[in-house]
Amino acid sequence: MPEFDTSHVKNIVLLGHAGCGKTTLAECMLFEAGLTNRRGSINQQNTTGDYHPLEQERGNSIFSKLMHAKWRGYKINILDTPGYNDFVGEVLSALRVADTGVMLLNATTGVEVGTDVIWEYTEKFRTPMILAVNKLDDDTADFDRTVQQAKDHFGSKVTVVQYPRQQGAGFHEIVDVLRMVLYKFKDTGGKPEKLPIPAEEREKADRLHQELVEAIASNDESLMEIYFDKGELEEDDMKKGLKSAMIHHDIFPLFCLSAERNMGSGRLMGFIDNVCPSANEMPPQETLAGEELACAPEGPPCMFVYKTVSEPHVGDLSFFKVYSGSIRTGMDLVNESNGSAEKISQLFLMEGNKRLPVNELVAGDIGATLKLRNTHVNNTLHAKGRNYELPPIVFPSPNMTVSIEPVNKGEEEKLAQALHQLREEDPTLIVEVSSELKQTLIHCQGDMHLAVARWKIENQQKVAVKFGRPRIPYRETIRKMAESSYRHKKQSGGAGQFGEVSIRIEPFYEGMPEPAGLTVRGRESYDLDWGGKLVFYNCIVGGAIDNRFLPSILKGLMEKMQEGPLTGSYVRDVRVCVYDGKMHPVDSNDISFKIAGIMAFKQAFQQADPQVLEPIYQVEVTSPEDLTGAVMGDLQSRRGLVEGMDTEGHFQKIIAKVPLAELHDFSSSLRSITQGRAKFSMHFDNYSPVSFDIQRKLVDEYNKNYAEALA
């Protein structure tokens, strides 16, 4: 039998911008629950959550952690998450399995960019949310300003449950307008003394209490009737109404904290136990097939893997949530994604990096297991005979790309294995072996994300690597019509080679008229893998070239279009008309016409006003208003064209089109300019012509490299 049933398991995720105090709050919760005998400190590098050497070195969370606390008959699973946008994948995976989010707001800085980013995801997941204003003991704390910003950003659903009687170094009293009591803490924090609300605070407390009651009643008709009849709600009614409103995203209750001094964490835990929903009180999960899956312990076993960690000498540790039934050791399950059978050999509760063995986990609980052979993040495991597949976590697109190679020759295979392992652990990191650019590329969220990847490769996989600037996937095209003829003739004894081809090339655009002055006998259109089109016309008259040689000419054209005449980049949007040529009754063959096609295309291309195109990306930067000028200046220095600005709360969103060639170090530059207070996203927009000077530089560089390769 599991120690806690489904109704007594609460899953919370701690969220917020970097430095808001999530890990410190987790330490308070573990300490208050008696799981630790002293609270760990980030400065002393001894917290339960931030156990990874890299986190201790940097002083901030990088990976999400699973911990749990036993509190007054309930089990609270605590998911601590990083605050930097570079590690958004860790936040998303934790949000996917949590039933309540606790968003920490820094009372000294208010709502920050990272808070806004995370809030967008909580809206998508429809996660019930608690807000907690932390660091109220700081001399620059401003509770009222922080609350107002929260309402500006998250709406009028933000409802005050607690407020501080004093702020700054003297902070030690919290007025609770749900219970209508004053909590008075000792300087060392911990369990507070419960006192009546002082007379001088009564008017404010009554007003906020009334606002809370009205907010609760307005979302429940039965409570509204009670409120109209009595003019008040009992505390139990308020708790019931709060739970329902939180589930439906109608109220976001706001609490007060000083996690550093352990003031307010116990009351927050009590609210989580008494009010926050368990998994079985949340709406049922809907499978990809549209079937509802209730979180019931008597249901069919079903679990979802949300995270994988590779542990040296142990193997892959898979973190999961039980969405139905019970998962027991020795159980055989089926992976719905690939049909493979998996045996659950071990089950663990997690306490940071400590594994606590258990025999069973019930619906709604979160745990971990080892050595699943063919199971990865986003996979659903279920009992045989079922076909459940839960919706996957959708991770964001990367914002930064670098090339990677081993420092030491001969370690390419070791690097490939290391990158594969990295990808297993982190779905937001994408590895690409680019045949076009002839580089291995890492696509990631930013420079901090990249630094973590490097640390793992070099310290865990023992492969020294170097990063480089990725080559840019330029394209080539033409701007006018040109014609060319080429004769390929080779005699070396016996049968020789002979083929002559005359072609016309033109820039292609949709709806263009048929070739002027030529007789069209056939037309083929090809959507190129790299974008754009090739349209190939057979305009041969009088049998100058047999139709059997046209595929060879086309093959030659395609081959040359994969290594354009100007810079070796892919060619796109060209129309080619083969209108004349010559054959030899003996020496003409496929290779002859392929070569003739290549050379005729190359000659014509050079005469057709060739143009190099570069990829342009749309970049959206969300920044504090006072830093928008510096951000815009940086974008413009990168040949960026600022297209507009939008206001988002207290932030400005800058929208610009920027060449990819100028974005290599944008992530680190933006962090430096804004002290980490801005975020950005980017996606491909279009290909655009480069300037004459840049084109000449690219062509000269390509010719130089080509000559060196032949030397």
- How many distinct helices? 16
Strand order, main sheet: write it out. 2-3-1-4-5-11-6
Largest sheet: number of strands, sense, barrel closure: 7 strands, mixed
Strand percent estimate: 25-35%
Rg from alpha-carbon coordinates: 32 Å
According to DSSP, the number of beta strands is 38
Terminal CA distance reads 75 Å
Given the C-alpha coordinates, what overall shape results? elongated
Summarize the amount of helix as a percent range: 25-40%
Low-confidence segments, given as residue ranges, are: none
Mean pLDDT: 93
Structural class: alpha+beta
Fold and architecture overview:
It is a single chain. This protein has 711 residues and is α+β, with helices and mostly antiparallel strands. It is built from 16 helices and 38 strands. The strands form 9 sheets. The protein has a 7-stranded mixed sheet with strand order 2-3-1-4-5-11-6, sandwiched between helices. Strand 19 and strand 20 form a beta hairpin. Helix 6 (199-217) crosses helix 7 and helix 12 (550-561) crosses helix 13 (590-607). The radius of gyration is 32 Å and the shape is elongated. 46% of the residues are buried. The mean pLDDT is 93.
Summed up:
The chain has 711 residues and is an alpha+beta fold.
Top keywords for this entry?
single chain, 711 residues, alpha+beta, 7-stranded mixed β-sheet
